[in-house]
Amino acid sequence: GEDVEQSLFLSVREGDSSVINCTYTDSSSTYLYWYKQEPGAGLQLLTYIFSNMDMKQDQRLTVLLNKKDKHLSLRIADTQTGDSAIYFCAEKRSSTLTFGKGTMLLVSP
Amino acid sequence: GAVVSQHPSRVICKSGTSVKIECRSLDFQATTMFWYRQFPKQSLMLMATSNEGSKATYEQGVEKDKFLINHASLTLSTLTVTSAHPEDSSFYICSASLGTGPLAKNIQYFGAGTRLSVL
pLDDT tens for residues B61-72? Predict the structure, then answer.
């Protein structure tokens, strides 16, 4: 298919690690992104990874890219209640971004 | 970081009126701006790509006469929803690319969005 797929919901306890998964479709995508959206707000760019990279780490965030399987994941270490939001993965196809439907992350105390 | 300001954040209007939404890049020049529409619990749907000084490129199925886009300067793009109807009620979000260069043009920074409710 042509969709970017994500699981719709993830629930974790505060302090645990969260892993949000995404599969994309275009093997020629050059950039892949993770955005965070809090209720009623726009999208905040969390991180991105270039297609020639396998992993990128930025503080509590770790992005893993498996190009063979077209699989992208976002790991949030020591998840906090403030991390509760919807997380979108996106791939860059030619000049535009294609987004998944988003994964709602709920962090409980 | 790059800041994109979008106004208004919320607008309620009567059916048949036109609504203008502004998108500004505050601390950088945006050669390209994008307009998205987001339905509840759905992903973002790209409506159009706007380049400064030229006509916007609309995605398939988006009415260009309904959604007028103007990108008159490197820091401002506007979306006007003309003769709005209840089915146009949605969350509209703009984004801007930082500029030229292999990395900058591949990163989009988003505004906070505008919730439009047409009565």
Answer: 999 999 999 988
What is the reported pLDDT for A72? Answer: 96
Option in A31, A42, A88 nearest B43 (CB): A88
Q: Which residues of B72-93 are buried (b: 16+ CB within 10 A; e: fewer)?
A: eebbbbbbebeebeeebbbbbb
Question: Which residue reads 């965070």 in tokens?
Answer: A36
C-alpha–C-alpha distance, residues A99 and A88, integer Å? 7
User: Which residue positions in chain B have pLDDT lower than 50?
Assistant: none
Size of interface A-B (CB pairs under 8 A): 44
Mean pLDDT value across chain B:
90
Phi, psi of A6 (to 5 degrees): -140, 155
The answer, for B51 touching chain A at a CB cutoff of 8 Å, is no
What's B37's DSSP letter?
Answer: E
Name residue A102's amino acid: G
Amino acid, res. A25? T
Tokens of A40: 């009623």
Residues A18/A75, Cβ–Cβ less than 8 Å: yes
